[in-house]
Amino acid sequence: MKRIGVLTSGGDAPGMNAAVRAVTRKAIYDGMEVYGINYGYAGLVAGDIRRLEIADVGDKIQRGGTFLYSARYPEFATLEGQLKGIEQLKKFGIEGLVVIGGDGSYHGALALTKHGFPAVGVPGTIDNDIPGTDFTIGFDTAINTVLESVDRIRDTATSHVRTFIIEVMGRNAGDIALWAGVAGGADDIIIPEHNFDMSKVAKKIQEGRDRGKKHCLIILAEGVMSGEKFSKELDTYGDFHTRVSVLGHVVRGGSPTARDRVLASKFGWTAVELLQQGKGGLCIGIKDNEIVASDIVKTLEGGKHQPDLSLYRLNNEISF
């Protein structure tokens, strides 16, 4: 294989640029040409493709977002969209493709695989909701961003003896809320993967107040409900001086942590290695601190990613 392409798709995640850098420089080091595809699958179909040189990925490893840009392109789920994309790949002589993104991006790579085009998926999403890997690019940065906000909110919550509902991103997954909640000493963590009883949440808050506790922090995953809705339901059980803070897209941005930069570099390097070996239809991950490659069809059809619910139990037992 002499010419490969790389694209980022779906929601941006800190560390995507580090992954593109690793793909580009590893390929060039091994005598290959690399083509960057702007705006994900939308750019692929449109032919928004350019050759990447060493200098194009310089000064990128520390930057958040993606310099290749990203866009939602549901049309790629259709046969017509997929064939248009393959037509562009052939036009540019691209023999293999590295797809960096989340669940939707993986399904695009799966479609290319089924058409016989070698594609390798690299998990890039702050949500950490991709099967086949313990961690995704951007997750570590996201939870550290949330953690910084939680620490700041605790100060004002204590000053005014308030209960804060902190709503965090994660789509339908609770990993961000779970990890940031444990690390931030949250009084309660509400995630889609575990049922909760509002009356018990209220009781826990009241018991804390009865002991003289000056604040209460509840980390809420957006996949459960909005912070405002949660606050209104909680208020039916008493006056807890509740305030809501929605962290929103700030969690997606910022310079990636060292862990995300290293993970992204490992993933990008491995993706090129696999394509060089003529291997496609794979997705890369990390399992028990080892880089692994799995069949993308079996991975996507084998079930959804599940968070470490032992953390949920841990927090319940030490957060009173």
Automatic annotation (TrEMBL):
Pathway membership, UniProt: Carbohydrate degradation; glycolysis; D-glyceraldehyde 3-phosphate and glycerone phosphate from D-glucose: step 3/4
Cellular component, GO, one term: 6-phosphofructokinase complex
Keywords, comma-separated and alphabetical: Allosteric enzyme, ATP-binding, Cytoplasm, Glycolysis, Kinase, Magnesium, Metal-binding, Nucleotide-binding, Transferase
Molecular functions (GO terms): 6-phosphofructokinase activity; AMP binding; ATP binding; fructose-6-phosphate binding; identical protein binding; metal ion binding; monosaccharide binding
Pfam families in the record: PFK
GO BP field: canonical glycolysis; fructose 1,6-bisphosphate metabolic process; fructose 6-phosphate metabolic process
Cofactor(s) the protein needs: Mg(2+)
Subunit details: Homotetramer.
Cited NCBIfam families: PFKA_ATP, PRK03202.1
UniProt cross-references to HAMAP family, sorted A to Z: Phosphofructokinase_I_B1
Similarity comment: Belongs to the phosphofructokinase type A (PFKA) family. ATP-dependent PFK group I subfamily. Prokaryotic clade 'B1' sub-subfamily.
Protein name: ATP-dependent 6-phosphofructokinase
Organism for this UniProt entry: Vagococcus humatus
Biological classification of the source: Bacteria, Bacillati, Bacillota, Bacilli, Lactobacillales
Gene it is expressed from: pfkA
